[in-house]
Automatic annotation (TrEMBL):
InterPro entries: Galactose-bd-like_sf, RhgT-like, SGNH_hydro, SGNH_hydro_sf. Belongs to the 'GDSL' lipolytic enzyme family. Gene3D superfamilies: Galactose-binding lectin, SGNH hydrolase. Residues 367-396 are annotated as: Disordered. Residues 159-322 form the SGNH hydrolase-type esterase domain. GO terms for molecular function: hydrolase activity, acting on ester bonds. It holds the Pfam family Lipase_GDSL_2. Transmembrane segments: none annotated. This is Rhamnogalacturonan acetylesterase. Keywords: Hydrolase. It comes from the Bacteria. CDD domains: Rhamnogalacturan_acetylesterase_like (cd01821).
Length: 396
């Protein structure tokens, strides 16, 4: 039922005043192949790590200063959101980080396949696919004094999808998959394999699906969301018609996971922000309906994120809905931190409402959530990652 733990030793590091054991990390310690801060990026602390799941325990708090700390992992996966600690107090928080690389077990002689995922050029330098665990420590007054990293055996939720799911690498972009971890207890890992520009066909041909199938274990969960790019008839090599081939690919993904003892969950795509008066004009309705139909026929749970996203946008209205989208609202498909957080919260709410087994891993303090009454974007706060050139998602 549980994933194989990473093969690595427990690592402990100490920072700043009041150090409490572990390897002392000077503020100017550049990553040296084992640990340290990423060159030119002093908010990013990396530790060499083999692929697997890790429990990260951070000690927060300073003797004379109140602190507020936000931590993201790998490609800006949200782990801790604005944890406040009064001066003179210390608290410990833990979370699970999934680490992976692009290597595949080479296929037998004369068998089809490959030895590595076919990464896009910009992925080759991403923290998602490297040989280390990277933490981004943020906040006006961050208070990390110690970090402990240990390999663990926990179930894993694998996310398969496109740019509306992936871990977007730079501000102001974000997608719901990279926010999801913040809504779960530290007893389950989120492994986000989604990537911008992907379709169900390309996910197979680029060996991303092979990578996921190589990693999954009985008891894991796979959440599958495609559609934005599959519907593009102008992409003839990967186009999949909603009434035929798209449904067949969904069934194929479901069958492969079930054969391995993995629970599939279908998620239909969040809608684009196209208006007809005060109502959203659907552009993905056929694909959203196909997901519902396949889910019903195959007895697979469906997260209706398409319907939830429409409720969110219409509740915000044409004037405020752009505040949920990237590039200052000029992008009508991809989200910013606020939009990604709201959609991830909607996903968590549907998991809870459907009483899926996965709901047992949700945080106990989440409360209820109504997509028709989203939080006010004017009061939403999430500490931004360090400035980097904006990367426009593929398929935009």
């Amino acid at each position: 039922m549980l994933a194989t733990p990473a093969v690595a030793q427990v690592r402990s590091f100490a920072f700043g005043p009041g150090k409490t054991g572990g390897t002392t990390v000077p503020r100017d310690q550049i990553y040296n192949g084992d640990h340290g801060y990423e060159p030119g990026r002093p908010t990013l602390f990396s530790v060499r790590a083999a692929p697997g799941n890790y429990r990260v325990t951070v000690t927060l708090g300073l003797p004379r200063t109140a602190t507020e700390t936000t931590i993201k992992a790998e490609n800006r996966r949200l782990m801790l959101d604005a944890v406040k600690v009064p001066a003179g107090r210390r608290v410990k928080r833990d979370f699970i980080v999934n680490v992976r690389d692009a290597a595949l077990v080479p296929p037998p002689l004369n068998a089809p396949g490959g030895a590595s995922v076919l990464l896009k050029p910009r992925e080759k330098t991403a923290f998602t696919w490297d040989d280390r665990l990277t933490l981004e420590i943020l906040g006006a007054t961050p208070g990390v004094t110690a970090i402990r990293i240990e390999p663990v055996t926990v179930p894993t939720v694998f996310l398969l999808g496109d740019s509306t799911v992936t871990d977007q690498p730079t501000e102001p972009g974000a997608s719901w998959g990279q926010m999801l971890t913040a809504f779960f207890k530290p007893d389950i890992a989120i492994a986000n394999h989604a990537e911008s520009g992907e379709t169900m066909k390309s996910f197979i041909s680029e060996l991303r699906f092979a990578k996921v199938l190589e990693l999954v274990k009985p008891g894991d969960v796979a959440m599958i969301q495609f559609g934005h790019n599959d519907q593009k008839a102008q992409w003839p090599q990967t186009y999949a018609a909603a009434e035929t081939t798209y449904r067949d690919y969904l069934r194929t993904f479901i069958a492969e996971f079930r054969r391995r003892g993995v629970t599939p969950i279908l998620v239909n795509s969040p809608e684009r922000r196209n208006w007809n008066g005060a109502k959203i004009t659907p552009t993905l309705a056929d694909y959203a309906a196909a997901v519902r139909a396949v889910g019903a026929a195959e007895k697979v749970p469906v997260i209706d994120l398409n319907a939830a996203s429409i409720r969110v946008y219409e509740a915000l209205g044409p004037e405020r809905a752009p505040l949920a989208f990237s590039d200052g609202g000029k992008d009508a498909t991809h989200h910013d931190n606020y939009g990604a957080w709201v959609l991830a919260r909607a996903v968590a709410a549907e998991i809870a409402a459907a009483k899926l087994p996965l709901a047992g891993h949700l945080r106990d303090d989440l409360g209820t959530f109504d997509p028709g009454r989203p939080p006010d974007p004017a009061t939403f706060r999430l500490t931004a990652s360090a400035a980097q050139p904006y990367v426009k998602p593929d398929g935009n």
